[in-house]
Specification:
single chain, alpha+beta, Methane Monooxygenase Hydroxylase, Chain G, domain 1, SH3 type barrels, 7 strands, 30% helix, elongated
């Protein structure tokens, strides 16, 4: 395994040399500078993987065997051997190695932003390098358009929602290292919690108690069977007829009164030479006197 990583490291170094030669001609090229930083980061990750694999590959030295000591003389009674003073033997805890999840290209994951705030953000895997036990992933963040080269410890699967009686939808990743391949996704009614969401119910469908449903159904049926009450007729028809006739008479009088017009005592004539006066005063309206020229006569005073 380390030989494969060494080969990948040499290949990255050769690519880095070519990039350095190109940068000598064009030192301000942004693409070459970005490629150089990615290659240097990949070389560092490969070195870390080689350093992790070396202690595992080195054989452990067996401790020197000591000469067996002679068995001590058995005692008839001892405090250590008495069952009343013996402590319960602690259960042996087996250290289980964490399962290494291998992701494929174009998988959606939660990746760590190593060059930023060290937080996990949604990303997509663009390429996978390294070995099966120590893969190296190149991811591209969805929201920030940033590319990072990460190891498996810096990548998490995307959390999936599930119903109360179901599990999360199985992601495109597959567990490696003694874990069996996950079967096809079953129907929601037969799903059970998995390790991806730790059994946390994120959303649940509304449900009703069967007893309440049966009670509501019985109440509806009983209401349909009962006859509807009939409206009672009022027997006081004479009083109603009398009130109706009074209202009709009042309405008819109101219409006649509105149609008739009465002459007002303050009315004015329609003519241009008309005068305003009171009617019914007992005397007719006087006419205007005619204007004549007075002719003076000498004998008028004698008469």
């Amino acid at each position: 395994m380390s030989a494969q990583l060494e080969g990948e490291r040499k290949e990255c170094e050769s690519q880095l040399e070519l990039v350095n030669v190109s940068l000598a001609d064009d030192p301000d090229n942004a693409e070459l500078l970005g490629l150089k930083s990615e290659l240097e980061q990949m070389i560092r990750l490969i070195d870390d993987s080689i350093a992790e694999l070396k202690p595992k590959n080195e054989p452990t030295k067996a401790p020197p065997k000591k000469a067996p000591s002679p068995p001590p003389a058995e005692q008839k009674w001892s405090r250590e051997n008495h069952p009343a003073f013996k402590k319960a033997a602690p259960a042996e805890e087996k250290d289980k190695e964490p399962e290494v999840i291998v992701y494929q290209v174009n998988d959606n994951v939660m990746a760590k932003w190593v060059s930023g705030d060290k937080g996990f953000y949604p990303a997509r895997i663009t390429s996978v390098t390294g070995s099966s036990t120590a893969p190296i992933y190149t991811v591209k963040f969805k929201s920030y358009d940033t590319v990072e080269t990460l190891r498996a410890k810096d990548i998490r699967p995307v959390a999936q929602k599930r119903k109360a009686d179901g599990t999360a939808v199985s992601s495109s990743s597959s567990a490696v290292g003694g874990a069996a391949a996950s079967p096809a996704v079953p129907s929601p009614s037969s799903l059970t919690p998995t390790s991806t969401n730790n059994g946390i119910v994120l959303s649940a469908a509304a449900d009703m108690y069967p007893q309440a449903q049966a009670a509501n159904k019985a109440a509806i049926e009983n209401n349909d069977e009962k006859p509807r009450p009939k409206f009672k007729k009022i027997k006081a028809t004479k009083e109603l007829e009398a009130g109706k006739n009074k209202w009709q008479e009042f309405n008819a009088k109101g219409k006649i009164g509105k149609a008739a017009k009465k002459e007002s005592m303050f009315r004015t004539p329609e003519g241009v030479r008309g005068r305003v006066g009171f009617t019914g005063s007992g005397q007719a309206m006087r006419k205007d006197p005619t204007r004549t020229r007075h002719v003076y006569q000498p004998n008028e005073d004698l008469d």
